[in-house]
Amino acid sequence: MENSFYNKIKNTFYLLILLLIMSCQDDYSEIGTSVINEQPVNIENQIYPVRTYNKQILPFQSNILPSYLLGHYNDPNFGNTTVHFLGQLTPSNFSPTFGDNTVLDSVVLTIPYFSNNDGESFSIDSLYGNGPIKLSIFKNNFFLRNFNPGTDLDESQRYYSNGAMSSSETLNFNELEGQLLYSNDEFTPDNEAINLITRDEDGEILTSETINPSLRVKLEENLPESFWETLIFDKEGEDELSSANNFYDYFRGLYFKVDSVLSSEGTGSLFQMNFGSSDAHLKIYYTYETTSVTTEETTERQGVYELRFGGNKTALFENNFNPNILQSINNANELDGDNQLFLKGGQGSMAIIELFDNDENGNTFEDYMSDFREIYNEGEENEERIIKRFINEAYLEFYVDDSALLPDSDIPNRIYIYDLENDVPLIDYLQDPTINPISSDSKFFHLVPLEVEIDDNGNEYKKYKVRLTEHINSLIANDLTNLKLGLVVSSNVGASNSQKLLNYDEIVKGIPAGSILSPKGVVLHGSNSIDPVRRVKLNIYYSQPNN
After folding, report:
1. What is the full DSSP assignment across 236-265?
2. Interatomic CA distance for residues 297 and 291, integer angstroms
3. Most buried residue among 124, 213, 326, 444 by CB atoms closer than 10 A?
4. Is residue 287 within 8 Å of 105, Cβ to Cβ?
5. For the whole model, what pTM was predicted?
6. Is the CB of residue 492 less than 8 Å from the CB of residue 440?
7. Alpha helix locations (H) across 334-487?
């Protein structure tokens, strides 16, 4: 599961990381009193206003992802999410020879889950929910082209989360559901490793291979007679099997369709599939005969024709929002900020952050910057910028609004912040070296995982902390524009590559892959929260010489 690492050794590991990083900070990073250039200084704190408001995530590019979700997940707070998958298959060899008197033995599809092994047992990573889903696998009849014919250059074709290929073209959904190859009305992913068996010369059953937890099913039941023989074996020597492009046009891949199980009281199951693994394949096993040229002896042998998910792949999202939450998102107060922030992964919702918002006294961003610097001869060749205050630490804290969530809600462990204008991570992200060597999780100093704060009365409050020290330093020292920032949930903050939106948006250019791969949601106190203590604020600790 997404939080398994933290449940075991989070506190110890995180403490060690913080001690290591804090020990490497400059002298002026200690809270209290210090010395800068032999001058005594005080470490002081000031809070600056921030404006935060909601925004719905619009359809985004859903191909070329680091991994793909599949399944259905019902979030009791936000609504349900369903993700289907569509992908091409590529033969491992072209122009094959299948031999004489070829007989089909079996057709087996194997796709590994992302899983962990603690030495005793496996657990599926990034599994959301624990209930069954209806899973159907079809032979796709829609051609997934490589290039976009609507562009002058050879631009790769983009596929989007709502099934669009451009603002004026969509997939033909009727063609996605060709021949039904597999169906299970109550499918659930299995944590167990899979033992493949064989028999020795004495007929004893042996384990020939053990593979990690995977979706492994046979695609040979209830099909038209000689379906696979006609589809593959009869094309020996023909153009259809001679190249990847010819094969893509002939056998256009598989469509994994997911439906909720209406009778189930559970949450369904949504999970990440490792289609990029070398163990993700469709194997057609067969028996054939070969005759020796010298002895004219006929021998029966085993063969396998292997197909991998090496072509175009895309995910199709369906998000059915809780109507009340969707209304709040669509009525976002961009002028004054929102009371609550609704973060939901996938084709969900996010928050917009504007640092150094105007305060009730009319102070603006430039006024705040003058607290930290003075500029002489502005705009001239001899312009001089004097830094008056040195920043120790700058951070935002986002408190979870438990009153808006059901008890025991499964909220995300990480959130991610990024530069919306340039669609890139912040400098604090790039300079944060922290990483968990056991998993892909990282960036603990910049993006502090979900933690619990206990006040003087013993009340517990869950919160996320985001350090922006270097980002604020850049604004002060380099006179940069105070750009809008985006805040999203993330299943893996290391997956920061951004997926472009289908249609132009004035504020948001793209969505980080780590947010696309998480269906979880959380409600946070916004900058206009009715709880003034939990409102989003920019905290800055700074050092200033005592002159």
Report:
1. TTSGGGSSHHHHHHHS--EEEEEEE-TT--
2. 5
3. 213
4. yes
5. 0.89
6. yes
7. 365-372, 427-431, 469-478
